[in-house]
Amino acid sequence: MVFHSANEPYPAGFVPALMAETWKRHQANEKPAACGNDGFPIYATNPRHAEHCLITDFIEQCRDSRDFNLSGKDVRAAGSRILELAPDAKVRAILAILERLPWTWKTCVKRIANGSMVSYRYEPPPWPWKLQRLLTALLRYPPPFKAKDFSDLLTALKEPPDRELLDSFVQPKGVVRIAQVSWPDGRVPESLLPQLSELEQFLEGRFRSSSTIDDRKVMEELGALTGKPKPQVITPVDAWSDAALADLGKMSGPESSAWLALLAHCKGADGSKPTKNWLTEAKRLADGIGREQFKAQVLQWFEKVALRRPIHRELSPNAQSPDPDLLIDEGNATVLRGLVWSCLGWKSAEISTALANLAEVCFKKVRWLGPRCPRVGNACLYTLSTTPSEDAAAQLSRLDSTVKQPTAKKRIGKSLDKAAEVSGQTREDLEESTIPTYGLDMNGNCKRSFGDYTAEFSIVGHDAFQVLWHKSDGKTQKSVPAEVKERRAPEFKAFKRSVQDIEKMLLAQRRRIERLLITEHEWDLESWRKRYLDHPLLADLTRRLIWHFKLGERSALGGWLNGKFVDAQDKPIDWLAPQTRVRLWHPIGFPVETVAAWRDWLQRHEVCQPFKQAHREIYLLTDAELQTGTYSNRFAAHIIRQHQFAALAKDRGWRYLLQGAFDSHNVPTLQLPQWNLAVEFWVDSPGGRENTSDMGIYLHLATDQVRFVRNGEALLLSDVPAVVFTEVMRDVDLFVGVASIGSDPTWQDHGEIEGANAYWQSFSFGDLSASAKTRKEVLEKLLPKLKIAAQCSFDEKFLVVRGKLRTYKIHLGSGNIQIEPNNQYLCIVPDRGLAAKQSEKLFLPFEGDTTLAVILSKAFLLAEDSRIKDPTILNQIRK
Q1: Which among 600, 411, 394, 418 is positioned nearest to 512, based on CA atoms?
Q2: CA angle at 829 for the pair 825 and 833, rounded to the nearest 5°
């Protein structure tokens, strides 16, 4: 409740309307017929005299009671008598309470004098809150009001000036309910319309910034009472709603009516999940439209939710509010949730994919808002988790890899657990057994016909995807035929959508398979063949990896070559049997010679692995770590960019929230439930005058210890499984290597972080990390095959490139450049996209090392430095 300042509880001369006569007589010192124990004067001529006497008794009885529940057993005599009054008397009792409350406020301001200082304090007695409970009980089943009484009610709720009685004692929906009970035909007397319109206008202003479903329902019902036109089921403000209204306008009368009935039903999609009755009605209405017609329509509408609002709204550059073009109207979001729930139980690959894509859009973060529309995203997760189909489970698995928002990720995990429970499998089995094939054959290819043209789609190694178009005469087309775009637009759009879905799913599966390295998960041979080796979507990934086979005492490492598995010397592994156990090979624990042999095998057969496996960095315990015992300082004292680190951490499955100059400290943590372990990587602000953004978020962090925790206790590093230790350290090395300010070629120390310039120098041109050493090894084997080989050599930490103008040293860790002979720094900002495209022309034994691609790109550029035209680079070279 809002109260006015104590020294003036109401504006000068203000007297609430209902008690105006009483106040006038009180000021004239007229003796009342009775006086309540709260001091309220009850005059004989007061039309609510009898009810006031009952209220006086009620206050007396509950004066010393700390709790007074009118709906429970503690109903005192006076309270019972009031609740059992006739309807007309109940109305008078309601108005009497509203008349009495302002008296309490106006007379309970205490003047406190302390020498020359005078202050005021509001000291309310306990009974106003007992009156509130009494009023709530009376309004639970309100009696019908006459026009004059209802007008008095609205007058009371308008006063005091800030409408303190509204919400605190009478809810807006209670006012609407009274009107509906009093005039069930909806024809409110015209004399009341101005007051109702005034209330409506006030509530509109209050709900403008934010409102709930109940708020919007109150506004609709209030609008109906004042004769306001009934709002549309969908508001024409979002891209999807505009498209839906346009589609409805093109439909025939019966079809449009069927859709409007469903959309109206969806507008009542309240709660976190649908009720059984709601779903039954939704199914009936969707069946009335026709399931295929329903599917075709919602697929189009769901896709348009990702678009910005069609009418652009300008946002002030300094405004601390979300981009209005990215908002989704609250009412439209409720309808969307209903449409999503209407898809529940439908075993359709297209529907499942559309729901997953919609969830991604809704969980995408919007600045100053957070997730764009979590209520629709959560509806998608609920629908997918309760639909017993492999496609739905597969899409949940994909979302688990692609969605980074912590709350959403937690919900996705619960949804996967629920889907596994529904299917009677473990979560791991569910994720592996429900991966869709998308119509691909065993070689990752598929064909789609579009009249006289055919599209051939294939997954081609590390190039990922290739789509070729052929005419009926066999002639290859350079691009998508115009006839397909114009005359086969719906089918072509569905084909493009399918290609995009394959790309997203393949990326998610590659991440999931890489995570298997830390779990040491095993399969029997037949299950593994079905789920990986012979799976149309995963076969290409699987056959570029090295697998560990074991049968009894016999074991071997194998790679796929010419339709069979061979060892590092290309000898076939011909003893595999159904009882063979298979797991993804991790190089830790294997002799250096074995690892080197497999690296040579990849180079010899030009097999590009989807992620580092044979070339994976190995991190073993050092003497310093054995001495510290429970923590590692291997990656301490680095300065990293916080936002980039946060993105990397989330991508690798770590939980971390941005820190700032406020109470926001948290520790980046990786949960490893299969090992009953949690990993902590301590970070904090490096300090400095200007190390925060305008919003107080730290721009940089200083790194510290890495700890392994089990059951709340720090574990000795020597007790951590070797594969866990190396994989965690690899993550942390990645965070430091990518997010360090030392990898930023444009870094210039302005003094905001003490010692940052010295750190930048030491990182940019210091000792090589494990990943940099691997990078050097790959370059040493790759360089002799390049046209610039004669101009290049290695010097400990550098790739040395001799151009026509100068000689350059590219650091193999940071990719930063020095010019000989005086080690002058050369700043070249890399185009990582262009560097990646250039590296595609070269064979690399693994994907994902962007720094390797940047180093190669810089080497090619500097080898022909005489052809450089960029004045920024030339000025530095010729300096």
Answers
A1: 394
A2: 145
The encoded tokens of residue 640 equal 């990293």
Hey, which bits of 726-853 come out as E strands? 792-795, 798-802, 807-811, 817-819, 824-826
Q: What's the order of all strands across the beta sheet hosting 798-802? A: 792-795, 798-802, 807-811, 817-819, 824-826
Query: Residue 97: phi, psi to the nearest 5?
Result: -65, -45
**Strands 41-42 and 34-35, bridge-based pairing:** antiparallel
Same domain? 117 vs 261: no
Q: Which of 763, 822, 825, 826 is nearest to 797 (CA)?
A: 763
> Cα(59)–Cα(624) distance, rounded to whole angstroms?
75
Distances (CA, A) of 341 to 276, 281, 292: 11, 11, 16
Cα separation, 770 vs 768, whole angstroms:
7
Q: Residue 167 pLDDT more than 70?
A: no
Q: Which strand (E) or helix (H) includes residue 620?
A: none
As a whole number of Å, the end-to-end CA separation of the chain is: 71
> Could you read off the pLDDT of 585-639 as tens digits, one per residue?
999 999 999 999 999 999 999 999 999 999 999 999 999 999 999 999 999 999 9
Q: Which residue has the tokens 């597969």?
A: 394
Give the max Cα distance, the chain.
114
Residues 151 and 71 in one domain: yes
3-state SS, 414-443, equals: HHHHHHHHHHCCCHHHHHHHCCCCCCCCCC
Dump strand ranges (E) for 472-512.
476-477
Per-residue pLDDT of 182-229, as tens digits, reads 998 888 899 999 988 888 888 877 766 556 667 777 887 888 888 776
Burial degree of 686 (CB within 10 A; 0-12, 13-18, 19+): buried
> Which tens digits make up the pLDDT trace of 850-872?
889 889 999 999 999 999 998 98
Q: How many domains does the chain have?
A: 6
- State both tokens at 80: 């019972």
Enter the DSSP assignment of 36.
Answer: -
Dihedral of the alpha carbons of 458, 459, 463, 467, in degrees to the nearest 10: 20
User: Phi and psi (nearest 5°) for 382?
Assistant: -65, -45
| Residue 500 CB contacts under 8 Å (≥ 6 apart), including other chains | none
Range of the domain at 570: 518-604
Instruction: Please state, as a whole number, how many other Cβ atoms lie within 10 Å of the Cβ of residue 370.
Output: 12
DSSP letters for 186-214 = S---GGGHHHHHHHHHHHHHHHSS---HH
Say if residue 164 is in the same domain as residue 61. Answer: yes
Place of tokens 């592996």: 432
Residue 278 has pLDDT above 90, yes or no: yes
Residue 795 sits at φ, ψ, to 5 deg, of: -135, 90
Helix (H) or strand (E) holding 373: none
- Domain final position from 145, 170, 195: 170
pTM higher than 0.70: no
Euclidean distance between CA atoms 584 and 590, whole angstroms: 14
Examine the domain organization and report whether 498 and 580 are in the same domain. no
